[in-house]
Amino acid sequence: MNKEEFVWGKHMSSRLDLLKIAMKYIIKLVRDADRLAIVSFNHAVVSEYGLTRNSADSRKKLENLVDKLKASGNTAFRPALKKAAEILDGRGKEEKKKRVGFILFLSDGVDQFQYSRINWEKVAKSTDVDHSEVGAMLRKYAVHTFGFSASHDPVPLRQISALSYGLYSFVCKNLDNITEAFARCLGGLRTVVAAEIRVDLKPKSSDKQQQQQPVLIKSIDSGGYESKVIGGGTSGKILIPVLYVDEVKKFIVHLKVPKVSATAVNNQQEILTADGDANSVDGKTVRIKEHKLAIRRPPEVVDQADLRPAPQVVEQVVVFKLLDMVPKTFQQRREDDHKGVKNTKVAVQLLQRNMDGIRRSDAWTDLDVGTRRRIDEQVKEIADHVEKGEGPAYVNSWVSSQEMQRANTMGSPNKVVAEFVTPAMKAIVEEVKKPLEEKIVEVSPARLPVPRLHLLQLIRLIIQIQIQLRLIRLPLLSNNILHVLMKNQLIIRILVRIHVRWSCLLKI
């Protein structure tokens, strides 16, 4: 932090004072079974308090360390991130297996190249020693970055979070309520129930004709998560570093299904299986039950009333189109800025022009009115923030949330994508909203929902499907069965939905 900038709220405080309040709340909130470390930095690491198991005594020491923080010096991200990773690397083998490590990275400044020696936009692709070292470091642990105040630089914070599968949040309004932003993040981290989730997708080819012209995976839309198409489309994988209780992740799988001359019993053709595994929070490997997808392929479709697309699939297809369009729009905008074109109206016009292209797509036509309105409102909000001069931070935080399908903070502590907020996040934010004295002194970690392994149904995998031809749209029917003409070669879009839920077991 380079300066003391004062903000108005119930009391006039500096950003550093507000940050200290938020950090003290985090210290109170972390459970006794967890461990916490703090690294303070400017252009170098200033001080550190290594990982320690929480107790009344250790919490007091951490609070004293927070009280001693001062705003001074310049800003360099790399030394602090390196030190944080080293602290997590120093844990024992058993702890690493059973406890997922996270880094919360807070900054109100601009990373200065002369100290970090890193161009954060090139970390993912550069092969030189410095950038490769930083890239490898970031892939070890999710880094959830927080930029606060209008003076922070969103681009490196966004790049850091994206490469590490973390989230980028920013707060430049209602700074008196900054604690809510951190609390929402912790509300998720406290309820991690699975790590290193791998979903395996395998197209099915049963008869000789299908083996000669097999069902193939063409591509997988996975947002910010890693996915792979293997063996020319003969299999695929989706990789998710961690899942929270009650989270839902949605991915689109595009299949090429060749025409057939005949199918098995009841004209059904099995075209895909999905299974996988994950690590539970006690370090054990848990298998994800296999799910099969079949379509019915009669010589002709009789029931014309059922010829309609699946709404959940269409919506997710449009979301991924939007998620592809928005970053490209503002990358083009940044290139224009380098050429000296800095009128925000140009950026908004470019956004609207690209959005019109999505509105002309078949997928948009198939959306219901309510979903179209909701997506239009999101695009309008992006345009509004661009016009207000908050475009880079807002766009980066919106993309971060949508790519990871997880709740972050976009400008104000109460600005969040509602569909990504889990019950645990809601509960912890409600605690924060109590009077300031209560949130620092009286909050009890035991009052917040914490998953218990013997009550947990770890992974539930649901496959839903929507199919679209050149001129014919075919329906989603019950039990994953679709009416599909045998004589057509098809491109099928499948929605793979991963959901973690509670499951109560009664012991008698």
From TrEMBL:
<dbReference type="InterPro" id="IPR002035">
    <property type="entry name" value="VWF_A"/>
</dbReference>
<dbReference type="InterPro" id="IPR036465">
    <property type="entry name" value="vWFA_dom_sf"/>
</dbReference>
<dbReference type="InterPro" id="IPR051266">
    <property type="entry name" value="CLCR"/>
</dbReference>
<protein>
    <recommendedName>
        <fullName>VWFA domain-containing protein</fullName>
    </recommendedName>
</protein>
<feature type="domain" description="VWFA">
    <location>
        <begin position="1"/>
        <end position="186"/>
    </location>
</feature>
<dbReference type="Pfam" id="PF13768">
    <property type="entry name" value="VWA_3"/>
</dbReference>
